[in-house]
């Protein structure tokens, strides 16, 4: 806390100024901490809130890496390059004039967010999806064809089904793919001076490297700001990570359906007899205990019978397999 002058000290200071013993220039302001604030670049998020947002998107990059690896069947590496707050105009100025922009509608905030996919990354994705090898994306100078647009839409609309999952500990949001655009000047998801969060993702697909950049307007993040503190973050994570009670697990397992097959008997025939079988022929089988199989493994032995007019099996013995605890 800054030192507060007493009334006696104030009177002595004024008296020294009036008598000439002290000049006004001698009252130094060098110890006063003054911070320049630019209202055109208003910083709405604290460092703690940005750290929470970074942790959320680290989870998203892991999910996105696994998803794209499965879709493209090649080496994928996605890492967060930076997370910062800028105004929307600066974000638009920082991305190429010809790029690929996937726009998403976010509810219940009634806002829109966008992921900018560098053409190198987008063309590398399309090469793999269309059966190509490691094609050179720099050879492409045109826009997306209609088929390529649909492919990019499908890949990233499914990818962002996972995006709402990483926010579930903070807020229940719904993300829906809305449109694809190639010119940033035609995309208006926020006012030019509105603060947005920019998350740059360094992306490697095989031997191709590029960037994907996520832009989230303040309108979307604002309702969640009180929950983006470290205390709220870890408390919400602790609640979701509490293991289920054994009773709940057992109850869930009880509702699972498994196939059960009863083997009536077995018979052995020479191949010559098998080839000569005709309609009406009778095959003799062993008439021992019936084998009741669960998922193709014999688990019970029983006897045939009838129940309410239907064939049935009466369990007579439990059959243990190797490795079971008797």
From TrEMBL:
Belongs to the FliM family. InterPro entries: CheC-like_sf (IPR028976), Flag_FliM (IPR001689), FliN-like_C (IPR001543), SpoA-like_sf (IPR036429). It is found in: Bacterial flagellum basal body; Cell membrane. Keywords: Bacterial flagellum, Cell membrane, Cell projection, Chemotaxis, Cilium, Flagellar rotation, Flagellum, Membrane. It is a peripheral membrane protein. Gene3D superfamilies: CheC-like (3.40.1550.10), SpoA-like (2.30.330.10). This is Flagellar motor switch protein FliM. SUPFAM superfamilies: CheC-like (SSF103039), Surface presentation of antigens (SPOA) (SSF101801). Residues 252-318 form the Flagellar motor switch protein FliN-like C-terminal domain. Signal peptide: none annotated.
